[in-house]
Amino acid sequence: MKVAFVGAGPGAADLITLRGARLLAEARIVMYAGSLVPPAVLEHCHADAERIDTSKLNLDEQQAVYERAQAAGVNVVRLHSGDPAIYGATAEQMRRLEKLGIPYEVVPGVSSFTAAAATITAELTKPEVSQTIILTRVSGRASPVPEKEALARLAAHRATLCIFLSGPQLPSIVADLLGHYPPGTPIALVQRATWPDERVHRSTLERVLDEVRVSEWQLTTMLLVGEALSREDGVESRLYAAGYAHRFRKAAKDEA
């Protein structure tokens, strides 16, 4: 018996990994958060699998499912939206599995921040613009953000920011960011990336609050911020420059 923490991806059923889909097809118990994992992803499940919506269960109740599976000797897939390593609340489950002597593995998934970047066809790291990506969120009732990681402090780096669960907090987020980023900094709001009802709004820090109704942007909104989102021409990477040599390619003679 084994538990697999599987990244379901951002929403689209065909963005789950091949390994994740195979484990879903084999598992006899599948645990998932119904509020975050779309029904289409569950089509990868075995026809006879027991499907349990964990949005209705506390951690003790979820542990009881693991114990029941252990007694029955059946494998479990714990399906997490995006990638289990990012805001997945997996560490607390792993600690309990270890105490129960239940082996587990983790299968990565496509995160909503990369899905959002793909949706707006943006590269988040551009030469001489930004080579750093910061993944963060603002404090919520379930998990406060440590003061040392407050958004206003992270903004001082002016790196590419990917802010999870940002919709309802947009006014305070913009206020914090304008303390460091130029007003014309490009931003993109992407809600439920790759879902059928995906929404996108591109703007700048100084204009976005005048252009959107905050109440219409749900908790499942990703906010991308940074000059890397600009559509203007930029410096080309040296990686593919004719005069750049590496162990797989020689530099062109007239460029060396």
UniProtKB/TrEMBL annotation:
Pfam family, one: TP_methylase
Coiled-coil residue windows: none
Top-rank EC class of the record's enzyme: transferase
InterPro entries named among the record's database cross-references: 4pyrrol_Mease, 4pyrrol_Methylase_sf, 4pyrrole_Mease_sub1, 4pyrrole_Mease_sub2, Cbl_synth_CobM/CibF, Siro_Cobalamin_biosynth, Uropor_MeTrfase_CS
The protein's annotated pathway: Cofactor biosynthesis; adenosylcobalamin biosynthesis
Alphabetized UniProt keyword annotations: Cobalamin biosynthesis, Methyltransferase, S-adenosyl-L-methionine, Transferase
SUPFAM superfamilies in the cross-refs: Tetrapyrrole methylase
Domain Tetrapyrrole methylase: 2-207
GO biological process: cobalamin biosynthetic process; methylation
Entry EC number(s): 2.1.1.133
PANTHER family per the UniProt record, alphabetical: COBALT-PRECORRIN-4 C(11)-METHYLTRANSFERASE, SIROHEME SYNTHASE-RELATED
NCBIfam families for this protein: cobM_cbiF
Name the record gives this protein: Precorrin-4 C11-methyltransferase
